[in-house]
Amino acid sequence: MKSPICIIADIGGTNARFALVEPTESGVASFSAPEKYLTADRSFSQTVSQFIRSRGIDFNADIELRAAVAAPVSAAQSLGEHATRLTNCDWEIGLTELHSALPKLKMRVLNDFAAVALALPSLTDAELTAWASTGSVSTGPKLAIGPGTGLGVASIVCVNGAWHVVPGEGGHVTLSAADDREAAILSIVRREFPHVSAERLLSGTGLPTLHRAVCAVDGLHSVASSAEDITDAVHRGELGALATLKTFAAMLGSVAGNAALTLGATGGVYLAGGLLQHWRDVFPVHDFVTQFRSKGRFTSYLTNIAIHRIDAPEPGLIGLARSA
């Protein structure tokens, strides 16, 4: 029996990346060069149709669509029967709009960072940059966390030799202060947002808010109004942007350390997300690692957990391709 055509889609708040799964002689699933679409340009159904048309696929073919989305996904939503609304854009992911044009389409939907977590066991050293290399347990729970448009968190655990993903919404935990300066920053942000989640500051959408608060507390001039502006200012060496980046790294390290403690992530912590790739040459890794480990009596526990940045292109698509 002929296998269905398998399309994979990693859908974030800003960009959606689509690719075709391709069989390989090794049996390890691979995928075609992804096509990137802006979510603001068209709807989900329009984007799916455009990708299928661009690849010359028959709309009446047996198609399996695996979609990783930046949103929580319930059991009913996981098969596309009920639409999933993304957290940071207006897309709704589901079968309703698609079935009239694609009658044989079947769908699987999962959280975007769950897809990243699915990739972790198969990533090679060449696809990672070590931020803290220690003796992590190879089959211990692994944590994926990373800032893009939002802040994604998920994990994967090994049970009886098989890996099982544990999705979560850790980006929406309440952000806490590690010192008086961070407390002052959060106090300013709470004037605008009564609940300050980790994602509220530690993401592309949250970075301008963090920048304004950091500059207010440190008495520095704030001129940047977007994540792109702040990144450009970092590369120019502007003090307000550099202070923002150091604060971002420290706060992200603290959040990641909390998540690693909660999960018991002895298999390592893996950082993904578009922001870290934009900052790969300037990100203050020391500030991240210091705050990651700064947990009092459990500092030694966290010191034994390896930390890596994922450099593999499209880890979410890797996870989707290997999620058969």
Protein model, in words:
- With 324 residues, the protein is α/β, with parallel strands linked by helices.
- It has 2 domains: 118 residues, ATPase, nucleotide binding domain (Nucleotidyltransferase, domain 5), CATH 3.30.420; 172 residues, 3-Layer(aba) Sandwich (Hexokinase, domain 1), CATH 3.40.367.20.
- The protein has 11 helices and 14 strands.
- The strands form 3 sheets. Strands 1, 2, 3, 4, 5 and 8 form a 6-stranded mixed beta sheet that branches. It has a 6-stranded mixed beta sheet with strand order 9-14-13-10-11-12, sandwiched between helices.
- A hairpin with a 3-residue loop joins strand 10 and strand 11.
- It is globular, with a radius of gyration of 20 Å.
- The mean pLDDT is 93.
What's the order of the H and E elements?
EEEEHEEEEHEEEEHHHHHEHHHEH
**What is the total number of structural domains?**
2
Low-pLDDT sequence parts: none
Assign a percent range to the helix content: 25-40%
Helix run count:
11
**What percent strand?**
15-25%
Overall 3D shape: globular
CATH architecture of the largest domain: 3-Layer(aba) Sandwich
The CATH C-level class name of the largest domain: Alpha Beta
Straight-line distance between termini: 17 Å
Number of strands: 14
CA-based gyration radius: 20 Å
CATH topology of the largest domain, by name, is Hexokinase, domain 1
- Compute the average pLDDT: 93
Give the biggest beta sheet.
6 strands, mixed
Q: Which class do the helix and strand fractions yield?
A: alpha/beta
